[in-house]
Write a structure and sequence with these properties.
CATH superfamily of the largest domain: Endonuclease Chain A
Radius of gyration: 28 Å
Number of domains: 2
Number of helices: 10
CATH topology of the largest domain: Endonuclease, Chain A
Helix content: 40-55%
CATH architecture of the largest domain: 2-Layer Sandwich
Order of helices and strands: HHEHHEEHEHEHHEHEEEEHE
Distance between the termini: 49 Å
Strand order of the largest sheet: 4-10-9-8-5-6-7-11
Largest sheet: 8 strands, mixed
Oligomer: single chain
């Protein structure tokens, strides 16, 4: 990756990159020197240089009433990132504190209709993560139709940590899965990952989306289309639990299916 791309990723504008790299070559220069070298007008050079000073990447010295700008060691970029991370963390913590302070007032305004289903839509990888996080609120168990192959493609690197947190919350996962290599490898960890499973013996019975039933909710996730829906409805969730449990009992009777139950949990 070229350094210009990396600097852009750090939030540098094209002109800031031009001035910064020009000063790396010159080490020390006046705004006039940099204006000549970069063909950026002197006023803009001053603005950019002072912005770089705020980032701790440039310093200013005065010699004989002339202002010179001195480049700092490029390794200072790492210090800059550490400061950015700390500032971002402090800002988030401050926002969380403010939200907690106003939460009683917000909750007093929140008056959901208990008889009316609530539907929430999620899009993109970030939205999918947020939707899936909600399953960690499950009361002791959730029921799922899932495909590990498409799950891991949809949210790479998400699930190992998710399983750790589900285990810590003592939530049992009961799942019905299509047969594929990824699924068979993952289900070797059923005991450690607090999971009971049935793998369909007929490989033609495959599917990509996922459905999870928990509490009074049903999560429907399309990994390929990167969309998820959570429907909160006791009536609908209860029906889906009945269907899942009846199907579970029926599938256990077919010798072609692979059934894995926990000894205790």
């Amino acid at each position: 990756m070229q350094y210009t791309q990396v600097l852009e990723n750090l939030g540098f504008s094209p002109k800031e990159i031009y001035i910064y790299t020009a000063l790396l070559e010159l080490e020390t220069a006046t705004a006039t020197d940099l204006a000549k070298k970069t063909e950026i007008n002197r006023t803009s050079c001053y603005d950019i240089l002072y912005a770089l000073i705020k980032r701790g990447l440039v310093s200013k010295i005065v010699k004989k009433k002339k202002i010179y700008f001195h480049i700092t060691d490029p390794r200072k970029l790492l210090n800059y990132l550490d400061r950015e991370k700390e500032e971002a963390y402090n800002k988030i913590e401050k926002n969380k504190k403010q939200i907690n302070e106003i939460m009683p007032e917000l909750l007093s305004l929140f008056n959901p209709n208990p008889t009316k289903p609530r539907i929430q839509f999620y899009e993109g990888e970030k939205g999918m993560r947020e939707a899936y996080e909600d399953t960690l609120t499950a009361d002791k168990v959730y029921y799922a139709y899932a495909n590990f192959e498409t799950m891991y493609q949809g949210l790479p690197n998400f699930f190992p940590n998710y399983y750790e947190r589900r285990i810590k919350a003592k939530i049992l996962g009961k799942g019905i899965f299509p047969k594929n290599k990824t699924t068979l490898n993952q289900l070797k960890n059923n005991q450690e990952e607090l999971r009971e499973s049935i793998v369909l013996g007929d490989e033609s019975l495959t599917y990509s989306p996922e459905v999870i039933i928990y509490n009074n909710k049903v999560l429907i996730a399309s990994w390929k289309e990167k969309i998820a829906i959570i429907i909160e409805s006791k009536e609908l969730a209860d029906l889906q639990k009945i269907i899942f449990q009846q199907l579970w009992v029926s599938l256990q009777k077919d010798p072609k299916n692979i059934v894995s139950l926990l000894n205790k949990y």
